[in-house]
Design a protein that fits this description.
single chain; about 400 residues; alpha/beta; Urease, subunit C, domain 1; TIM Barrel; eight-stranded parallel beta sheet; seven-stranded mixed beta sheet; 15 strands; binds N-(iminomethyl)-L-glutamic acid; binds fe (iii) ion
Length: about 400
């Protein structure tokens, strides 16, 4: 057992948890000054609250002094494409000079460009680059990280990439919890006649193959005009459900394709992007447990209008924020920076922002036992060496995070 004591400020998110992460007011941060947390040997939370109210049975528990720390539930980046070869810096310059993301993609750039670089990279190089990226992401305070495959788009290499993400999961166990998402349905390589042809030849048979290894946590698909349609999406989701694998979807990014409604219909963990989602989609999301994941970094990076977060929040949706870190549409790996900059533009209050990167982001990965520092939840924290919680979001791009393993000897 362990007593984290004298915590300068502790955001438990108890209020947010009680409201299932929906319709939050600032008080739902449930901020406590001079707080204590008791953690058991299995790393579950036994008690949290004001130091002055610590039950006497915990008084002699070995303690760690946290008087320099602000502690929050662990930050979760629930949408990233961290494994990729090369970069697309030149495309970014082309876009600054007036080119359009979708036109570049049609001309063979975009995802297919990264596909070529990923296919020509060797696995050791991809692993080494991914390790460096994960270390950097962890240094900002992220303790749970979703990583999608989807830049090989070839049966054998795509399989190796999912296995590589599994190897990353093993490598970072105890430090960063990694969630392995299968996104072979990311784009259709030019050698296939149609998305259906590619689904039948690569995506579906490979899912069968990988599901035998038990290493896929969720499937994902880019449901968008010119990529994958409703039939492709239903095919993938129906099989994922039979296999007991979670469902996520890139939905309504460039057009309103009814992606949010489709996600709800299939009981998806989350639907992500949502730049063009209709009122009908928002209403359906608000009545479901599917998390609405907004990716403001991508809208910034593409120079597009941000998602209308308030419509989702006011309707009662469970909203998460994620980075979408990838080489093409958001080459920024820092979710706290993105959230800090986006918060005011998305008109989110402080509890909505923190909940979106902790409690609701955990739910977007089906992890409902973390994201609030209350009895019965997992002891997963982010730790910041600063004076107040407010300073973290206020100080755009400044990194106050310190490793919880080091700071709390967990
Ligand atoms: O989430 N929208 C689809 N996929 C990625 C972009 C990938 C890329 O451009 O390399 C996204 O934005
Ligand atoms: Fe994405």
């Amino acid at each position: 057992m362990k007593h984290l004591k004298n915590i300068k400020e502790l955001a438990t998110l108890k209020g947010a948890h009680e409201k299932d992460g929906r319709r939050l007011s600032p008080e739902d941060l449930s901020l406590i000054k001079d707080a204590s947390v008791i953690v058991d040997t299995d790393e579950n939370i036994l008690w949290s609250g004001k130091a002055s109210e610590l039950p006497s049975k915990f008084k002699d528990t070995p303690s760690v002094d946290c008087s320099n720390f602000v502690i929050t539930p662990e930050i979760v980046d629930s949408h990233t494409h961290t494994v990729f070869g090369g970069n697309r810096a030149f495309e970014y310059s082309m876009r600054l000079n007036g080119a359009d993301y979708q036109d570049i993609a049609k001309a063979g750039g975009g995802i297919l460009n990264t596909m070529e670089k990923t296919l020509s990279a060797d696995l050791d190089e991809l692993f080494k680059d991914a390790c460096e990226r994960i270390e950097r992401i962890h240094s900002y305070g992220v303790g749970t990280l979703e990583i999608k495959s989807g830049y090989a788009l070839d049966y054998n290499k795509e399989k190796e990439i999912t296995q590589l993400i599994h190897k990353l999961k093993e490598r970072f166990r105890g430090k960063v919890q990694i969630f392995n998402t299968y996104l072979a349905a990311h784009a259709v390589p030019k050698s296939f006649q149609s998305s259906k042809d590619y689904m039948d030849t690569v995506v579906m048979p490979l899912l069968e193959d990988l599901s035998k290894e038990g290493i896929v946590d969720a499937v994902d698909i880019f449901h968008e005009q010119g990529y994958f349609d409703e039939q492709d999406t239903a095919l993938l989701f129906d099989r994922a459900k039979e296999l007991g694998i979670g469902i996520k979807v890139h939905a309504d990014e460039f057009n309103d394709n009814g992606g949010a409604a489709l996600a709800c219909q299939h009981g998806a963990l989350s639907c992500d992007h949502l730049l063009q989602t209709s009122k009908d989609g928002i209403d359906k999301l608000s009545r479901s447990s599917t998390v609405a994941t907004i990716l403001p970094g991508t809208a910034f990076f593409l120079g597009k209008k941000l998602a209308n977060a308030r419509s989702f929040l006011d309707a009662g949706c469970k909203v998460a924020l994620a980075s979408d870190y990838n080489p093409g549409s958001c080459h920024c790996d820092n979710l706290l920076l993105i959230s800090s900059i986006a918060g005011k533009n998305l008109e989110m209050n402080i509890a909505e922002i923190w909940s979106a990167i902790t409690l609701n982001a955990s739910a977007a990965l089906g992890m409902n036992d973390q994201g609030a520092i209350i009895e019965g939840m997992k002891a997963r924290f982010s730790v910041f060496e600063t004076n107040s919680l407010d300073e973290i979001i206020y100080s755009w791009g400044r990194n106050f995070s310190i490793s919880p393993q080091k700071a709390l000897s967990l």
